Amino acid sequence: MTIKVLIADDHKLFRQGLIGLMRTREDLVQVIGEASTGIEAVQLAEQLRPDVILMDIYMPEMDGLEAAKEIRSRFPEIAIVMLTSSERDGHLYEAVQIGIAGYLLKSLDAAELFDLLSGVVKGETALTRAMAGKLLKAVANRLADGEKGEQALTERELYVLRLVASGATNLEIAEKLSISINTVKSHLKNILEKLQLENRTQAATYAVQHGLVSPREQ
Fold first, then answer.
1. Exposed e or buried b for every residue in 185-199, given b needs 16+ CB within 10 A?
2. With a threshold of 0.70, does the pTM exceed it?
3. Is 68:97 a contact under the CB 8 Å cutoff?
4. I need a labelling partner for 186 at 20 to 30 A (CA). Which of 46, 93, 101, 127 fits?
């Protein structure tokens, strides 16, 4: 059985090159669609129901991680493999939290790509040894630095973090604390830096996981 693949990448030249590569192994893979934005990826995932989506992170309108999260929640049977140039620990860590089936760099060898795709449809995780090692270090660093970062937060920053976890917008936080939106943004920037997080979604998840806010407050 051939693997039905959807390619999501905002660079047309890269998509064309990847499609050309896939055609050399039509016994294994079949490209059934291509998307240039995260929103298109979500739409095509619903329409085409591919076996695997090869997803870039850096895309307009909705980035690959947000698109992956949306697709995973709606179509958990679709395996998503991030195929990106990003080696950032934060991106790798967030992708794993979402439940992606693999995280590969665009510098990957073609033969290894096909081998890993074959494993994905069997339920295996597509990670090279280098990325697997990087993931273990990222998790260890998050566990260690997360505890230190939480202790470094001021009382006001902890309060802002709890409000973020409850779903409050910057405007709502500003009104509740009688501060400007710019001050709220400054607090959020400090929180993300101290906890080594990428965005407010990760901050909200962190707050719940570390017992800083109860599920009822979300």
1. eebbebbbebbbbbe
2. no
3. no
4. 93
What's the half-sphere exposure (Cβ side, CA atoms, 13 Å) at 10?
Answer: 12
Do the Cβ atoms of 81 and 52 come closer than 8 Å?
A: yes
Q: What is the pLDDT of residues 58-105, one digit of tens each?
A: 998 889 999 999 999 999 999 999 999 988 877 887 888 888 999 999
Q: Which residues contact 158 (CB under 8 A, 6 or more apart)?
A: 212
Q: Is 53 helix (H, G, I), strand (E, B) or coil?
A: strand
61: left (phi over 0), alpha (psi -120 to 50) or beta: left
Residue 213 and residue 165 in contact, taking contact as beta carbons nearer than 8 Å = yes
CA–CA separation, 140 and 160 (whole Å) = 26
Q: How far is CA 58 from CA 10, 27, 42, 52, 127, in A?
A: 8, 30, 15, 19, 19
**Longest C-alpha distance within the chain, in Å?**
63
